[in-house]
Task: inverse folding
């Protein structure tokens, strides 16, 4: 039997993916953001779908355009706000910049606000105040000047940036040419109690909440008080020697007056969540790691007027998001936990966990219903992609109610189970994916081992980019270990391999692999194995390649190669240098952990994959690794087993559908060639 979704890459690529949720203020309507490729599979675009909160009715598509729609948010009157660069049929304007649109429950969408450079992330208070993110070119005095400057720069092909500090890049885009802004929708705008269909279709002015903020709101994070009177926003301040410090600002929406509410020496503040009565807020705090000490992260509750903070005690759970209960007496927290995830209810006055709602999967997008009992979320698990679910805040260890939505995966080509191995006295867990008999073929199955990125992450949720079911469909078993440095296992799990000691991580990865190979019930072939990893996982595969020849081939995506080079050229140079220091300071660590130091020992065929626009792990890592591999191969050029897939328009992740197809075909062909004796990988790409 064939699982068509995973057998045909085009079917897999075109399968709908739920990426977000929004709930109306009265709790009656739930909207999902659903991603699908365009007709040419050149890029993904999003549309908005209505999902029945009760779960009785099928989902209904609300929007459709070539440009797509995203960032849904409801107004108190029930209109649905979203952002899109779709053309405006009323004005005839066509722009690449996303605008703010309003869709009434019955009627056509109306463009309500525009800003040069576009807007994003609308957030609506219970009273109807709307805040969006925007940007201004450095030096622009107002929106009109900014618009004129952008048009002139575009016409003259001006792309220069004059930097005056760090950072200057972020993942896949440049910084310092623009300044992020928080913009208020003035003159009632979308907060008008009349439905959008009854209002005149004219753009509403956007007021800059902090026009002198400069670069402080880079990568904006903010929350708005229920009455719309103030905003809590993260502000990043530059300090000496390329360092930065994140504080939390309170900004008065009417006047723009700012005051600092969280500024802790040595700790960064982010992700503020304001309580329903606006008297308290939750905030994520982080003390950065050093060479000798891992980073420390926690969530605390503070009074808006000051006073002692209450730190939440979440045990092994690594928190990801927080939402207040409807009455403000509790905090709902979701995060990584033991290879899955959890949603817990916490008492904000003591910081103690009151109730474990679920511990079966990874949860995100927590949305609290005004009835105080119902909670909506996206649930993602190893055997099911992100799906809207309904939870009961008052229930312990419950089974979530799945809501009908696009993107359901009905059939899987195998099974997944939890596995573990004892390594140096520690029980190291992971997941094992096994093909069913129809996909296994004759004899024991070949095995792939995947090392996750981060390194502070966990194999605990569905991934469309690294989906093990694609390999299982092709007859491979896949091992996904959670070694030291993984999240959801407590602070000791991080400290055990600090600071990023590759030998410890590899020993634990290999221990899990050896354990599953030794179990005859799995019917695995220990003589046919491949190793794959991306980002930190790619760093590990590069390092492992120089320390063992046990694998038939190795695939490295966006992997670090020369650490003394990468630590200074990454967009995260501040963090890397703060932890690892220089080679002069820690020569033994660099000698033991930088993959380039053992390049001459590599004999395993390697496939390097890298995106040109990757600023987290710059392309220079792959270029240097490629030169070391090619120049170090002593045989004839036509016999060299290594390959390099360069993705010239991609960044740290492969985001375009077509390039994902090429990525998958290349990876599986390369592995089939060296693991199973399949046809050789050619340079032809269609």
Result:
């Amino acid at each position: 039997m064939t699982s068509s979704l995973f057998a045909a890459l085009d079917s897999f690529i075109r399968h709908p993916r739920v990426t977000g949720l929004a709930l109306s203020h009265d709790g009656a309507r739930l909207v999902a953001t659903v991603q699908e490729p365009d007709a040419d599979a050149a890029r993904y675009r999003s549309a908005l779908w209505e999902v029945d909160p009760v779960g009785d009715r099928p989902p209904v598509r609300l929007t459709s355009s070539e440009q797509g729609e995203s960032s849904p948010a409801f107004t108190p009157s029930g209109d649905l706000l979203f952002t899109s660069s779709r053309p405006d049929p009323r004005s005839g304007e066509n722009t690449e910049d996303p605008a703010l649109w309003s869709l009434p429950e019955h009627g056509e969408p109306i463009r309500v606000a525009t800003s040069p450079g576009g807007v994003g992330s609308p957030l609506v208070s219970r009273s109807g105040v709307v805040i969006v993110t925007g940007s201004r070119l450095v030096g622009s005095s107002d929106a009109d000047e900014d618009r004129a400057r952008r048009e002139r720069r575009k016409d003259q092909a001006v792309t220069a940036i004059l930097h005056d500090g760090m950072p200057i890049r972020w993942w896949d885009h440049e910084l310092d040419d623009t300044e992020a802004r928080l913009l208020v929708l003035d003159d009632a705008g979308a907060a008008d109690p009349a439905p959008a269909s009854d209002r005149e279709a004219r753009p509403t002015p956007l007021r800059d909440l902090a026009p002198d903020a400069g670069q402080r709101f880079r990568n904006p994070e903010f929350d708005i008080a229920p009455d719309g009177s103030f905003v809590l926003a993260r502000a990043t301040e530059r300090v000496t020697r390329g360092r930065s410090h994140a504080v939390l600002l309170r900004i008065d929406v009417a006047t723009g007056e700012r005051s600092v509410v969280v500024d802790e020496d040595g700790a960064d503040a982010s992700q503020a969540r304001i309580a329903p009565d606006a008297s308290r807020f939750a905030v994520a705090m982080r003390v950065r790691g050093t060479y000798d000490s891992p980073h420390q992260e926690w969530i605390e509750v503070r009074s808006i007027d000051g006073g002692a903070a209450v730190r939440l005690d979440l045990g092994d759970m690594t928190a990801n998001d927080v939402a207040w209960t409807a009455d403000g007496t509790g905090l709902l927290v979701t995060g990584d936990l033991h290879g899955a995830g959890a949603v817990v209810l916490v008492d904000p006055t003591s910081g103690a966990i009151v109730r474990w709602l679920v511990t079966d999967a990874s949860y995100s997008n927590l949305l609290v219903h005004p009835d105080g009992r119902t909670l909506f979320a996206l649930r993602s698990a190893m055997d099911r992609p992100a799906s809207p679910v309904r939870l009961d805040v008052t229930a312990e260890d419950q089974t979530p109610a799945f809501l009908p939505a696009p993107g359901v995966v009905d059939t899987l080509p195998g099974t997944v189970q939890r596995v573990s191995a004892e390594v140096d006295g520690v029980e190291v867990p992971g997941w094992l994916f096994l093909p069913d008999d129809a996909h296994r073929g004759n004899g024991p199955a070949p095995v792939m081992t995947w090392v996750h990125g981060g390194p502070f992450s966990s194999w605990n949720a569905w991934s469309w980019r690294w989906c093990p079911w694609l390999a299982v469909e092709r007859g491979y078993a896949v091992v996904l270990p959670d070694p030291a440095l993984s999240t959801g296992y407590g602070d000791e799990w991080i400290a055990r391999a600090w600071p990023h000691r590759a030998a410890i991580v590899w020993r634990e990865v290999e221990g899990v692999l050896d354990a599953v190979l030794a179990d005859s019930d799995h019917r695995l072939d220990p003589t046919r194995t491949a190793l794959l990893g991306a980002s930190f996982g790619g760093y590990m595969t590069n390092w492992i390649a120089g320390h063992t020849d046990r694998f038939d081939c190795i695939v490295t995506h966006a992997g670090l190669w020369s650490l003394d080079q990468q630590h200074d050229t990454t967009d995260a140079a501040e963090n890397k240098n703060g932890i690892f220091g220089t080679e002069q300071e820690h020569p033994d660590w660099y000698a033991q952990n930088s993959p380039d130091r053992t390049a001459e020992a590599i004999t395993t065929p390697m496939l390097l994959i890298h995106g040109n626009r990757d600023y987290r792990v710059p392309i220079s890592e792959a270029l240097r690794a490629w030169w070391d591999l090619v120049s170090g191969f002593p045989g004839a050029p036509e016999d060299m087993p290594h390959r390099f897939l360069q993705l010239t328009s991609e960044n740290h992740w492969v985001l375009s559908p077509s390039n994902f197809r090429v990525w998958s075909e290349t990876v599986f062909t390369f592995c089939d060639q060296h693991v199973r004796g399949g046809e050789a990988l050619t340079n032809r790409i269609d």
